[in-house]
Amino acid sequence: MEPVQGENKRDCWTVAFGNAYNQEERVVCAGYDNGDIKLFDLRNMSLRWETNIKNGVCSLEFDRKDISMNKLVATSLEGKFHVFDMRTQHPTKGFASVSEKAHKSTVWQVRHLPQNRELFLTAGGAGSLHLWKYEYPIQRSKKDSEGVEMGVAGSVSLLQNVTLSTQPISSLDWSPDKRGLCICSSFDQMVRVLIVTKLHKI
């Protein structure tokens, strides 16, 4: 997948699979250095949707890969992340989204909790981890002035944060077996194993 001849070629920084709810459906989402986010339909190899979040896209993740598209989180330079509601696509406005200023520096990574897809962890360039919860709106879609369905974004709230290092946390992952167990690596050449407690009460 690359731009057609004559178009500018941007650096692709991150990719994520999603929408794999059966044997045929597949999408891949790509984030670029100029803030572009492009959603490609792998079934017919076409561009399904694109937007721009104004800063380089460092990490992308669907809340689940193996279900119909539900939510997509995109993190970026300058400390912001965006949550897109992927259930309803408007022909011109695309997907509804909410953005949040999360860290005071680059948000390097995002990872959803395997046991609860409404919770996700972001890793920042200042050595901190932030745990967030996404709240759905009362109605996830509404009709615009022309009667076309459009999505409605929810809200995000910060549950907890911790500073682990003076260096950026570059990678993190949750355990699929033990709720709350996670691991992260940072530029201070350290790998840290962490446990987040009381997640079952959220």
UniProtKB/TrEMBL annotation:
Q: Keyword Repeat, does the record have it?
A: yes
Checking InterPro entries in the record gives: WD40/YVTN_repeat-like_dom_sf (IPR015943), WD40_repeat_dom_sf (IPR036322), WD40_rpt (IPR001680)
| Matching Pfam families | WD40 (PF00400)
Q: Which UniProt keywords apply?
A: Repeat, WD repeat
Q: What is this protein called?
A: Dynein axonemal assembly factor 10
Instruction: State the organism named in the record.
Output: Vulpes vulpes
Instruction: List the taxonomic lineage.
Output: Eukaryota, Metazoa, Chordata, Craniata, Vertebrata
Q: Gene for this protein? A: DNAAF10
